[in-house]
Write a structure and sequence with these properties.
Number of helices: 13
Helix content: 25-40%
Strand content: 5-15%
Distance between the termini: 27 Å
Structural class: alpha+beta
Largest sheet: 3 strands, mixed
Shape: globular
Radius of gyration: 19 Å
Number of strands: 7
Amino acid sequence: MKQRKCCRPQPRAFSGIIQLFVCSRVVASVAILAACAWTVSSPVIGQDSTPAWAYPVNPPDFKPAPDTGIPRRVPDSTATYTLTQIRDLFTAPDWHPGDHPPMPEIVSHGRKPEVQACGVCHRADGPGGPENSSLAGLPASYIVQQMADFKNGARGTSVPTRVPPRLMIGLAKAATDAEVADAARYFSALKPKSVIKVIETDTVPKTYVFNWHLAAVTTGEKESIGQRIIEVPENLEQFESRDTRSRFAAYVPIGSVAKGKSLATTGGNGKTTQCGICHGPDLTGLG
């Protein structure tokens, strides 16, 4: 079977496009869609290597900060976790338990030794992050199919050195059908929320790779955006703590919002098929 690579520049930009429209994020969706569409003509896509802005890889000398043992806190939460607890792949930090129903075991703790907790990477109520997909509100059948494709090899990764997809593939191969079904039901029942602010700009903050995603430098330095999407956490420590209320800035080239709207509604004035043909006029899907 020919392997289908996951070649979307920003996984969560596309996996969440339907739900983004549902939760009044039309501007964000079409802007990111347009920015991604613009990059197709960029020479970097035609090269053997994948674009670094879309698939960040930790530098060889990357080392996570040591755990000082001091409990961390996030805004509007009474919970505390140490860095060691936050980095435990078998315990999903639950900073805001009132924001979601009780997590099933597969989401909150997984199953040792091979099935990590879904809520660690995708977060307790499914918003995900720049390094993975948002799951909240996706159809359960869609989630089940993606897991099946990871398991049978139909879905892979364009950058095998990246740890997040490697963990996902290994987890999918080890998870049982019942565990997948539990996770799919949980995430599909959650209401997606707006966590990304789209900013059209010619210049962006300089960035560096931090644990498989981009982060803005603290010096205030800027650089040209070119044909890229630069998505960074607004508060790096809050996101590193796996707070589900973390917010992000997605910088896109100027004109992306209008171009995205045109692609979504008219197919770019007939250049391609408009999104609504398959996803419906309100982009909530056609079953």
